[in-house]
Amino acid sequence: MTWQAELDELNRRKAFTRQMGGADKVKRQHDGGRLTVRERIDAVLDPASFFEVGSITGRAEYDAAGNLTQLTPANCVFGRGTVAGRPVMVCGDDFTVRGGSADATIGTKVLMAEQMAAEYRLPIIRIIEGSGGGGSVKTIETRGRANLPGGVGTTMAYQYAMGNLSVVPVVGLGLGSVAGLGAARLAATHYSVMTKATSAMFVAGPPVVNALGHNFSKQELGGWEIQTKSGAIDHAVDTEEEAFACARRFLSYLPSSVDALPPVEPPTDDPDRRDESLMQAIPRARRKIYKMRGIIETVVDRGSFFEMGKMFGRSIITGLARIDGVPVAVMGSDPYYYAGSWTADACQKIIRFVDLAETFHLPVVYLCDCPGFLIGLEAEKAATIRWGVRAMAAINQSTVPWCTIIIRNAFGVAGAANVPSGRLALRYAWLSAAWGSLPLEGGIEAAYRADIDAAEDKAAKLREIEHRLNQLRSPFRTAEAFLVEEIIDPRDSRKLLCEFARLALPLLKPGMATFRTRP
Protein backbone atom coordinates (compact mmCIF):
# COMPACT_ATOMS: atom_id res chain seq x y z
CA MET A 1 0.00 0.00 0.00
CA THR A 2 1.32 3.47 -0.92
CA TRP A 3 0.11 7.04 -0.75
CA GLN A 4 0.34 7.53 -4.50
CA ALA A 5 -3.33 8.50 -4.84
CA GLU A 6 -2.94 11.32 -2.35
CA LEU A 7 0.28 12.44 -4.00
CA ASP A 8 -1.50 12.50 -7.35
CA GLU A 9 -4.28 14.62 -5.80
CA LEU A 10 -1.72 17.03 -4.32
CA ASN A 11 -0.04 17.42 -7.69
CA ARG A 12 -3.42 17.93 -9.40
CA ARG A 13 -4.23 20.73 -6.99
CA LYS A 14 -0.81 22.29 -7.53
CA ALA A 15 -1.45 22.15 -11.27
CA PHE A 16 -4.66 24.15 -10.74
CA THR A 17 -2.89 26.88 -8.76
CA ARG A 18 -0.01 27.08 -11.24
CA GLN A 19 -2.54 28.06 -13.90
CA MET A 20 -2.98 31.24 -11.85
CA GLY A 21 -5.91 33.27 -13.19
CA GLY A 22 -6.16 31.22 -16.38
CA ALA A 23 -4.54 31.28 -19.80
CA ASP A 24 -6.43 34.40 -20.91
CA LYS A 25 -5.34 36.41 -17.84
CA VAL A 26 -1.75 35.20 -18.18
CA LYS A 27 -1.77 36.27 -21.84
CA ARG A 28 -3.13 39.66 -20.85
CA GLN A 29 -0.30 40.02 -18.33
CA HIS A 30 2.31 39.17 -20.97
CA ASP A 31 0.66 41.39 -23.57
CA GLY A 32 1.01 44.27 -21.10
CA GLY A 33 4.76 43.70 -20.98
CA ARG A 34 4.65 42.18 -17.50
CA LEU A 35 5.75 38.81 -16.15
CA THR A 36 3.53 36.65 -13.99
CA VAL A 37 4.20 36.41 -10.28
CA ARG A 38 5.74 32.94 -10.63
CA GLU A 39 8.04 34.09 -13.42
CA ARG A 40 9.08 37.03 -11.26
CA ILE A 41 9.87 34.86 -8.27
CA ASP A 42 11.94 32.50 -10.39
CA ALA A 43 13.83 35.47 -11.86
CA VAL A 44 14.70 37.24 -8.60
CA LEU A 45 15.78 34.09 -6.73
CA ASP A 46 18.64 31.71 -7.39
CA PRO A 47 17.59 28.99 -9.88
CA ALA A 48 15.46 26.17 -8.43
CA SER A 49 15.74 27.58 -4.90
CA PHE A 50 12.08 28.52 -4.33
CA PHE A 51 10.08 26.55 -1.77
CA GLU A 52 6.48 27.69 -1.82
CA VAL A 53 4.39 27.91 1.32
CA GLY A 54 0.64 27.51 0.92
CA SER A 55 1.00 26.23 -2.62
CA ILE A 56 -2.58 24.89 -2.88
CA THR A 57 -4.32 27.71 -1.00
CA GLY A 58 -7.32 29.05 -2.86
CA ARG A 59 -11.07 28.92 -3.42
CA ALA A 60 -12.17 25.43 -4.34
CA GLU A 61 -15.24 24.21 -6.26
CA TYR A 62 -16.65 20.68 -5.78
CA ASP A 63 -19.27 18.63 -7.61
CA ALA A 64 -22.23 16.96 -5.94
CA ALA A 65 -20.10 13.94 -5.11
CA GLY A 66 -17.55 16.09 -3.29
CA ASN A 67 -14.89 15.87 -5.99
CA LEU A 68 -12.71 18.91 -6.66
CA THR A 69 -13.53 20.46 -10.03
CA GLN A 70 -11.67 23.77 -9.85
CA LEU A 71 -9.20 25.52 -7.55
CA THR A 72 -8.70 29.24 -8.03
CA PRO A 73 -5.50 30.16 -6.21
CA ALA A 74 -5.16 32.92 -3.68
CA ASN A 75 -3.59 35.93 -5.32
CA CYS A 76 -0.56 35.85 -3.03
CA VAL A 77 2.38 33.54 -3.73
CA PHE A 78 5.08 33.35 -1.09
CA GLY A 79 7.87 31.16 0.19
CA ARG A 80 11.56 30.85 0.85
CA GLY A 81 14.47 30.85 -1.56
CA THR A 82 17.99 32.12 -1.86
CA VAL A 83 19.70 35.16 -3.36
CA ALA A 84 23.41 34.60 -4.00
CA GLY A 85 23.11 31.54 -1.78
CA ARG A 86 21.64 33.44 1.19
CA PRO A 87 18.11 32.58 2.39
CA VAL A 88 15.36 35.15 1.80
CA MET A 89 11.58 35.40 1.89
CA VAL A 90 9.69 36.42 -1.21
CA CYS A 91 6.03 37.41 -1.36
CA GLY A 92 4.32 38.29 -4.64
CA ASP A 93 0.91 39.50 -5.79
CA ASP A 94 -0.78 37.53 -8.56
CA PHE A 95 -2.49 40.18 -10.65
CA THR A 96 -4.07 37.55 -12.88
CA VAL A 97 -6.42 36.62 -10.00
CA ARG A 98 -8.83 39.50 -9.40
CA GLY A 99 -6.14 42.10 -9.92
CA GLY A 100 -4.52 41.33 -6.58
CA SER A 101 -7.51 42.67 -4.62
CA ALA A 102 -9.04 41.38 -1.39
CA ASP A 103 -11.72 39.40 -3.23
CA ALA A 104 -9.19 36.65 -3.90
CA THR A 105 -6.93 37.19 -0.92
CA ILE A 106 -6.38 34.87 1.98
CA GLY A 107 -4.87 37.45 4.25
CA THR A 108 -3.01 35.08 6.50
CA LYS A 109 -0.65 34.27 3.63
CA VAL A 110 0.73 37.81 3.50
CA LEU A 111 0.80 37.92 7.28
CA MET A 112 2.74 34.66 7.53
CA ALA A 113 5.27 35.79 4.93
CA GLU A 114 6.06 38.88 6.99
CA GLN A 115 5.97 36.92 10.25
CA MET A 116 8.34 34.26 8.92
CA ALA A 117 10.76 36.94 7.75
CA ALA A 118 10.73 38.50 11.21
CA GLU A 119 10.97 35.30 13.26
CA TYR A 120 13.58 33.57 11.11
CA ARG A 121 15.49 36.80 10.44
CA LEU A 122 15.25 36.59 6.65
CA PRO A 123 15.30 39.54 4.23
CA ILE A 124 11.97 39.89 2.45
CA ILE A 125 11.34 40.85 -1.16
CA ARG A 126 7.81 42.13 -1.81
CA ILE A 127 6.70 41.85 -5.44
CA ILE A 128 3.68 44.14 -5.60
CA GLU A 129 1.05 44.64 -8.28
CA GLY A 130 -2.51 45.76 -7.69
CA SER A 131 -3.81 46.72 -4.27
CA GLY A 132 -1.54 44.24 -2.56
CA GLY A 133 -4.42 42.44 -0.88
CA GLY A 134 -6.37 45.61 -0.27
CA GLY A 135 -10.07 45.88 -0.96
CA SER A 136 -12.13 47.00 -3.91
CA VAL A 137 -15.68 48.24 -4.22
CA LYS A 138 -16.75 44.72 -5.23
CA THR A 139 -15.43 43.38 -1.93
CA ILE A 140 -18.61 44.59 -0.21
CA GLU A 141 -20.74 42.42 -2.46
CA THR A 142 -18.48 39.36 -2.61
CA ARG A 143 -18.09 39.25 1.15
CA GLY A 144 -21.56 40.44 2.01
CA ARG A 145 -20.32 43.16 4.33
CA ALA A 146 -18.15 46.24 4.49
CA ASN A 147 -14.67 45.94 5.89
CA LEU A 148 -13.70 48.13 8.85
CA PRO A 149 -10.07 49.22 8.34
CA GLY A 150 -7.90 48.31 11.27
CA GLY A 151 -9.35 44.89 12.09
CA VAL A 152 -7.26 42.40 14.05
CA GLY A 153 -5.83 40.60 11.02
CA THR A 154 -5.10 43.87 9.26
CA THR A 155 -3.35 45.44 12.20
CA MET A 156 -1.17 42.35 12.67
CA ALA A 157 -0.17 42.53 9.01
CA TYR A 158 0.63 46.24 9.41
CA GLN A 159 2.61 45.50 12.56
CA TYR A 160 4.85 42.98 10.83
CA ALA A 161 5.11 44.90 7.55
CA MET A 162 6.27 48.04 9.34
CA GLY A 163 8.09 46.28 12.18
CA ASN A 164 10.25 44.29 9.79
CA LEU A 165 12.02 47.53 8.87
CA SER A 166 13.75 47.35 12.23
CA VAL A 167 14.70 43.68 11.89
CA VAL A 168 15.47 42.59 8.31
CA PRO A 169 16.21 44.21 4.95
CA VAL A 170 12.94 44.88 3.11
CA VAL A 171 12.85 45.35 -0.68
CA GLY A 172 9.78 46.40 -2.65
CA LEU A 173 9.32 45.89 -6.39
CA GLY A 174 6.37 47.76 -7.93
CA LEU A 175 5.80 45.99 -11.22
CA GLY A 176 2.37 47.18 -12.33
CA SER A 177 -0.36 49.46 -11.07
CA VAL A 178 0.02 49.66 -7.30
CA ALA A 179 -2.64 51.31 -5.14
CA GLY A 180 -3.95 51.50 -1.60
CA LEU A 181 -2.49 48.89 0.72
CA GLY A 182 -0.10 47.81 -2.05
CA ALA A 183 1.30 51.35 -2.20
CA ALA A 184 1.74 51.36 1.57
CA ARG A 185 3.61 48.05 1.46
CA LEU A 186 5.81 49.33 -1.37
CA ALA A 187 6.64 52.55 0.47
CA ALA A 188 7.34 50.71 3.74
CA THR A 189 10.66 49.34 2.51
CA HIS A 190 14.35 50.08 2.79
CA TYR A 191 14.69 50.07 -0.99
CA SER A 192 12.01 50.24 -3.68
CA VAL A 193 12.06 49.96 -7.46
CA MET A 194 9.40 50.43 -10.13
CA THR A 195 9.40 49.88 -13.87
CA LYS A 196 9.08 52.99 -16.01
CA ALA A 197 6.62 51.96 -18.72
CA THR A 198 4.53 49.32 -16.99
CA SER A 199 4.08 50.48 -13.41
CA ALA A 200 2.53 53.32 -11.45
CA MET A 201 1.82 53.89 -7.78
CA PHE A 202 -0.87 55.89 -6.03
CA VAL A 203 -2.94 56.05 -2.87
CA ALA A 204 -5.96 55.80 -5.18
CA GLY A 205 -5.86 55.26 -8.92
CA PRO A 206 -7.22 57.40 -11.77
CA PRO A 207 -10.81 56.01 -11.66
CA VAL A 208 -11.18 57.20 -8.07
CA VAL A 209 -9.26 60.46 -8.44
CA ASN A 210 -10.86 61.38 -11.75
CA ALA A 211 -14.29 60.98 -10.21
CA LEU A 212 -13.41 64.15 -8.28
CA GLY A 213 -13.21 66.11 -11.53
CA HIS A 214 -9.70 65.35 -12.77
CA ASN A 215 -8.52 63.61 -15.92
CA PHE A 216 -5.23 61.92 -15.05
CA SER A 217 -3.67 58.95 -16.78
CA LYS A 218 -1.84 56.38 -14.66
CA GLN A 219 1.54 57.87 -15.54
CA GLU A 220 0.39 61.44 -14.92
CA LEU A 221 -0.91 60.53 -11.48
CA GLY A 222 1.66 58.05 -10.24
CA GLY A 223 4.29 57.32 -12.87
CA TRP A 224 7.95 56.78 -12.13
CA GLU A 225 8.96 60.42 -12.51
CA ILE A 226 6.33 61.51 -10.01
CA GLN A 227 7.24 58.88 -7.45
CA THR A 228 11.05 58.99 -7.68
CA LYS A 229 11.15 62.79 -7.58
CA SER A 230 8.82 62.81 -4.56
CA GLY A 231 11.00 60.27 -2.75
CA ALA A 232 8.20 57.71 -2.44
CA ILE A 233 10.19 55.29 -4.65
CA ASP A 234 13.96 54.96 -4.68
CA HIS A 235 14.64 53.92 -8.25
CA ALA A 236 13.03 53.27 -11.63
CA VAL A 237 14.25 50.92 -14.35
CA ASP A 238 13.26 49.99 -17.88
CA THR A 239 12.64 46.28 -17.40
CA GLU A 240 11.56 43.86 -14.72
CA GLU A 241 14.84 42.00 -15.13
CA GLU A 242 16.69 45.19 -14.15
CA ALA A 243 14.45 45.51 -11.08
CA PHE A 244 15.37 41.97 -9.99
CA ALA A 245 19.07 42.74 -10.46
CA CYS A 246 18.71 45.89 -8.32
CA ALA A 247 17.03 43.91 -5.54
CA ARG A 248 19.74 41.28 -5.55
CA ARG A 249 22.52 43.87 -5.55
CA PHE A 250 20.97 45.91 -2.73
CA LEU A 251 20.76 42.82 -0.53
CA SER A 252 24.41 41.96 -1.23
CA TYR A 253 25.58 44.89 0.93
CA LEU A 254 23.41 44.09 3.94
CA PRO A 255 23.31 41.42 6.62
CA SER A 256 20.34 39.06 6.63
CA SER A 257 19.08 40.77 9.78
CA VAL A 258 20.11 43.10 12.55
CA ASP A 259 21.51 40.06 14.36
CA ALA A 260 24.33 39.72 11.85
CA LEU A 261 27.00 41.99 10.38
CA PRO A 262 27.27 43.16 6.76
CA PRO A 263 28.95 40.59 4.49
CA VAL A 264 32.59 41.45 3.91
CA GLU A 265 34.03 40.30 0.59
CA PRO A 266 37.66 39.62 -0.28
CA PRO A 267 39.26 42.88 -1.48
CA THR A 268 39.33 43.25 -5.26
CA ASP A 269 40.88 46.71 -5.51
CA ASP A 270 44.25 48.05 -4.40
CA PRO A 271 43.82 49.92 -1.08
CA ASP A 272 46.85 52.07 -1.94
CA ARG A 273 45.51 53.12 -5.33
CA ARG A 274 46.09 56.86 -5.92
CA ASP A 275 44.17 58.61 -8.65
CA GLU A 276 45.89 61.70 -10.05
CA SER A 277 42.56 63.14 -11.22
CA LEU A 278 41.66 63.97 -7.63
CA MET A 279 44.22 66.78 -7.61
CA GLN A 280 42.24 68.53 -10.36
CA ALA A 281 38.76 67.47 -9.26
CA ILE A 282 37.85 70.70 -7.42
CA PRO A 283 37.99 74.00 -9.35
CA ARG A 284 39.84 76.88 -7.71
CA ALA A 285 36.95 79.18 -8.60
CA ARG A 286 34.62 78.51 -5.70
CA ARG A 287 31.45 79.09 -7.69
CA LYS A 288 32.33 76.42 -10.26
CA ILE A 289 30.72 73.03 -9.88
CA TYR A 290 32.25 69.57 -10.24
CA LYS A 291 31.09 65.96 -10.33
CA MET A 292 30.95 64.39 -6.89
CA ARG A 293 29.89 60.98 -8.25
CA GLY A 294 33.21 60.69 -10.04
CA ILE A 295 35.03 61.29 -6.77
CA ILE A 296 32.91 58.67 -5.00
CA GLU A 297 33.59 56.12 -7.72
CA THR A 298 37.32 56.82 -7.43
CA VAL A 299 37.70 56.39 -3.66
CA VAL A 300 35.49 53.30 -3.15
CA ASP A 301 36.22 49.85 -4.57
CA ARG A 302 35.90 50.06 -8.33
CA GLY A 303 32.38 49.41 -9.59
CA SER A 304 30.95 48.96 -6.11
CA PHE A 305 28.93 52.17 -5.70
CA PHE A 306 25.18 51.48 -5.67
CA GLU A 307 23.22 54.74 -5.60
CA MET A 308 19.85 55.03 -3.88
CA GLY A 309 17.22 57.77 -4.30
CA LYS A 310 19.00 59.62 -7.10
CA MET A 311 15.98 61.69 -8.17
CA PHE A 312 15.01 62.94 -4.69
CA GLY A 313 16.80 65.37 -2.40
CA ARG A 314 19.33 65.85 -5.15
CA SER A 315 21.78 68.05 -3.30
CA ILE A 316 22.86 64.96 -1.36
CA ILE A 317 24.01 61.68 -2.96
CA THR A 318 23.41 58.47 -1.02
CA GLY A 319 24.34 54.89 -1.78
CA LEU A 320 26.03 51.70 -0.68
CA ALA A 321 29.56 50.73 -1.63
CA ARG A 322 32.49 48.60 -0.57
CA ILE A 323 35.80 49.91 0.66
CA ASP A 324 38.50 47.25 0.83
CA GLY A 325 35.65 44.72 0.62
CA VAL A 326 33.76 46.20 3.60
CA PRO A 327 30.17 47.39 2.94
CA VAL A 328 29.72 51.07 3.81
CA ALA A 329 27.03 53.73 3.55
CA VAL A 330 28.23 56.67 1.45
CA MET A 331 26.88 60.23 1.49
CA GLY A 332 28.23 62.92 -0.79
CA SER A 333 27.22 66.51 -1.44
CA ASP A 334 26.23 67.34 -5.02
CA PRO A 335 27.16 70.93 -5.97
CA TYR A 336 25.04 70.63 -9.14
CA TYR A 337 21.94 71.17 -6.97
CA TYR A 338 21.76 74.27 -4.77
CA ALA A 339 25.57 74.14 -4.46
CA GLY A 340 25.14 71.17 -2.12
CA SER A 341 22.91 73.05 0.35
CA TRP A 342 20.66 70.93 2.52
CA THR A 343 17.08 71.29 1.31
CA ALA A 344 14.06 69.91 3.17
CA ASP A 345 14.04 66.98 0.72
CA ALA A 346 17.75 66.34 1.20
CA CYS A 347 17.29 66.31 4.97
CA GLN A 348 14.51 63.72 4.71
CA LYS A 349 16.80 61.64 2.53
CA ILE A 350 19.65 61.92 5.04
CA ILE A 351 17.42 60.84 7.94
CA ARG A 352 16.24 57.71 6.15
CA PHE A 353 19.72 56.83 4.92
CA VAL A 354 21.53 57.30 8.24
CA ASP A 355 18.81 55.24 9.92
CA LEU A 356 19.43 52.46 7.38
CA ALA A 357 23.15 52.53 8.19
CA GLU A 358 22.46 52.46 11.92
CA THR A 359 19.92 49.62 11.63
CA PHE A 360 22.21 47.32 9.65
CA HIS A 361 25.59 48.28 11.15
CA LEU A 362 27.10 50.03 8.12
CA PRO A 363 30.03 52.42 8.68
CA VAL A 364 29.31 55.83 7.17
CA VAL A 365 31.56 57.77 4.79
CA TYR A 366 30.54 61.39 4.16
CA LEU A 367 32.18 63.43 1.40
CA CYS A 368 31.11 66.88 2.54
CA ASP A 369 30.63 70.05 0.51
CA CYS A 370 27.81 71.78 2.38
CA PRO A 371 27.43 75.58 2.27
CA GLY A 372 24.58 75.31 4.81
CA PHE A 373 20.82 74.99 4.67
CA LEU A 374 19.04 76.28 1.59
CA ILE A 375 17.79 79.80 2.24
CA GLY A 376 14.90 81.81 0.85
CA LEU A 377 11.12 81.88 0.90
CA GLU A 378 10.61 78.43 -0.61
CA ALA A 379 13.04 76.92 1.89
CA GLU A 380 11.07 78.50 4.74
CA LYS A 381 7.78 77.22 3.31
CA ALA A 382 9.23 73.71 3.18
CA ALA A 383 10.17 73.85 6.90
CA THR A 384 13.80 73.26 5.99
CA ILE A 385 15.02 74.04 9.49
CA ARG A 386 12.62 71.49 11.02
CA TRP A 387 13.79 68.75 8.66
CA GLY A 388 17.33 70.00 9.11
CA VAL A 389 17.43 69.55 12.87
CA ARG A 390 15.89 66.09 12.45
CA ALA A 391 18.69 65.19 10.03
CA MET A 392 21.23 66.52 12.50
CA ALA A 393 19.60 64.45 15.25
CA ALA A 394 19.80 61.30 13.10
CA ILE A 395 23.51 61.90 12.54
CA ASN A 396 24.22 62.78 16.16
CA GLN A 397 22.27 59.79 17.50
CA SER A 398 24.00 57.30 15.21
CA THR A 399 26.53 54.96 16.80
CA VAL A 400 28.17 53.33 13.76
CA PRO A 401 31.76 54.33 12.89
CA TRP A 402 31.89 57.53 10.86
CA CYS A 403 34.50 59.10 8.59
CA THR A 404 34.12 62.48 6.90
CA ILE A 405 36.25 64.08 4.23
CA ILE A 406 35.52 67.80 3.80
CA ILE A 407 35.91 68.28 0.08
CA ARG A 408 35.14 71.98 -0.16
CA ASN A 409 32.52 73.71 2.05
CA ALA A 410 31.32 73.24 5.63
CA PHE A 411 29.33 76.30 6.63
CA GLY A 412 26.51 77.16 8.98
CA VAL A 413 24.32 74.88 11.05
CA ALA A 414 24.09 72.18 8.37
CA GLY A 415 27.85 72.31 7.87
CA ALA A 416 28.26 71.61 11.58
CA ALA A 417 26.70 68.19 11.06
CA ASN A 418 29.70 66.94 9.12
CA VAL A 419 30.39 64.39 11.90
CA PRO A 420 28.27 63.10 14.81
CA SER A 421 28.70 65.23 17.91
CA GLY A 422 29.81 63.90 21.26
CA ARG A 423 31.80 60.92 20.04
CA LEU A 424 34.91 60.11 18.07
CA ALA A 425 34.72 60.26 14.30
CA LEU A 426 37.55 60.38 11.80
CA ARG A 427 37.68 63.60 9.83
CA TYR A 428 39.95 64.80 7.06
CA ALA A 429 39.97 67.87 4.84
CA TRP A 430 41.13 68.30 1.30
CA LEU A 431 43.38 71.21 0.31
CA SER A 432 40.31 72.81 -1.27
CA ALA A 433 38.31 72.88 1.99
CA ALA A 434 36.86 76.01 3.57
CA TRP A 435 34.52 76.51 6.52
CA GLY A 436 32.98 79.03 8.85
CA SER A 437 29.72 80.36 10.23
CA LEU A 438 28.81 81.83 6.85
CA PRO A 439 30.35 81.70 3.37
CA LEU A 440 32.27 84.86 2.56
CA GLU A 441 30.46 85.18 -0.75
CA GLY A 442 27.53 87.49 -0.15
CA GLY A 443 28.37 88.03 3.52
CA ILE A 444 31.19 90.55 3.19
CA GLU A 445 28.92 93.28 1.83
CA ALA A 446 26.70 93.00 4.87
CA ALA A 447 29.43 92.69 7.50
CA TYR A 448 31.68 95.42 6.07
CA ARG A 449 29.06 97.73 4.55
CA ALA A 450 30.37 100.84 6.31
CA ASP A 451 33.98 100.23 5.22
CA ILE A 452 32.97 99.58 1.63
CA ASP A 453 30.66 102.62 1.45
CA ALA A 454 33.42 104.87 2.86
CA ALA A 455 35.99 103.78 0.29
CA GLU A 456 36.65 105.78 -2.87
CA ASP A 457 36.99 102.54 -4.90
CA LYS A 458 34.31 100.27 -3.48
CA ALA A 459 35.21 97.32 -5.73
CA ALA A 460 38.88 97.53 -4.76
CA LYS A 461 37.94 97.71 -1.08
CA LEU A 462 35.78 94.65 -1.45
CA ARG A 463 38.62 92.72 -3.12
CA GLU A 464 41.01 93.79 -0.36
CA ILE A 465 38.65 92.52 2.36
CA GLU A 466 38.03 89.28 0.45
CA HIS A 467 41.78 88.66 0.15
CA ARG A 468 42.39 89.33 3.84
CA LEU A 469 39.55 87.08 4.99
CA ASN A 470 40.48 84.29 2.56
CA GLN A 471 43.93 84.18 4.12
CA LEU A 472 42.39 83.93 7.59
CA ARG A 473 39.96 81.18 6.60
CA SER A 474 42.73 79.01 5.19
CA PRO A 475 42.33 75.41 6.41
CA PHE A 476 45.96 75.60 7.57
CA ARG A 477 44.98 78.24 10.15
CA THR A 478 42.28 75.90 11.49
CA ALA A 479 44.68 72.97 11.58
CA GLU A 480 47.13 75.03 13.65
CA ALA A 481 44.51 75.14 16.41
CA PHE A 482 43.70 71.43 15.95
CA LEU A 483 40.11 72.32 15.01
CA VAL A 484 40.43 70.06 12.01
CA GLU A 485 42.33 66.86 12.60
CA GLU A 486 44.26 66.44 9.36
CA ILE A 487 44.53 68.09 5.97
CA ILE A 488 45.37 65.54 3.31
CA ASP A 489 46.53 65.16 -0.25
CA PRO A 490 43.30 64.22 -2.09
CA ARG A 491 45.12 61.31 -3.71
CA ASP A 492 45.51 59.69 -0.28
CA SER A 493 41.74 59.59 0.28
CA ARG A 494 41.23 55.98 -0.76
CA LYS A 495 44.12 54.72 1.35
CA LEU A 496 42.77 56.49 4.43
CA LEU A 497 39.21 55.27 3.78
CA CYS A 498 40.45 51.69 3.46
CA GLU A 499 42.20 52.12 6.79
CA PHE A 500 38.94 53.46 8.25
CA ALA A 501 37.01 50.44 6.96
CA ARG A 502 39.48 48.08 8.59
CA LEU A 503 39.40 50.05 11.86
CA ALA A 504 35.60 50.15 11.82
CA LEU A 505 35.05 46.44 11.23
CA PRO A 506 35.81 45.17 14.76
CA LEU A 507 33.67 47.95 16.25
CA LEU A 508 30.49 46.78 14.55
CA LYS A 509 28.15 44.92 16.86
CA PRO A 510 25.07 42.92 15.81
CA GLY A 511 21.73 43.60 17.46
CA MET A 512 18.72 45.88 17.33
CA ALA A 513 19.28 49.60 16.97
CA THR A 514 18.30 51.86 19.83
CA PHE A 515 15.22 52.99 17.87
CA ARG A 516 12.48 51.45 15.75
CA THR A 517 12.89 52.21 12.08
CA ARG A 518 9.99 54.07 10.48
CA PRO A 519 9.16 54.03 6.75
Radius of gyration: 27 Å
What is the helix content?
Answer: 25-40%
Kindly state the number of beta strands.
18
Proportion of strand residues: 15-25%
**End-to-end distance, in Å?**
55 Å
Keywords summarizing the entry:
519 residues; alpha/beta; 2-enoyl-CoA Hydratase, Chain A, domain 1; eight-stranded mixed beta sheet; 37% helix; elongated
Describe the 3D structure.
The chain has three domains: 34-55 and 74-252, 2-enoyl-CoA Hydratase, Chain A, domain 1 (Alpha-Beta Complex), CATH 3.90.226.10; 276-433 and 484-507, 2-enoyl-CoA Hydratase, Chain A, domain 1; 438-473, no CATH class. It is 37% helix and 20% strand. It has helices at 4-18, 23-31, 37-44, 107-119, 138-143, 152-163, 181-187, 206-210, 218-222, 224-230, 240-252, 292-299, 344-359, 377-381, 384-397, 412-415, 444-447, 449-454, 458-472, 475-480, 493-504; strands at residues 51-53, 58-62, 68-73, 76-83, 86-93, 124-130, 170-179, 191-195, 200-202, 235-237, 306-308, 316-323, 326-333, 364-370, 402-411, 426-430, 434-436, 487-488. Strand 13, helix 13 (344-359) and strand 14 form a beta-alpha-beta unit. With 519 residues, it is an alpha/beta fold. The strands form three sheets. Strands 1, 4, 5, 6, 7, 8, 9 and 10 form an eight-stranded mixed sheet that branches. The protein contains 21 helices and 18 strands. It starts with a helix and ends in a 15-residue tail after the last helix. The mean pLDDT is 91. The radius of gyration is 27 Å and the shape is elongated.
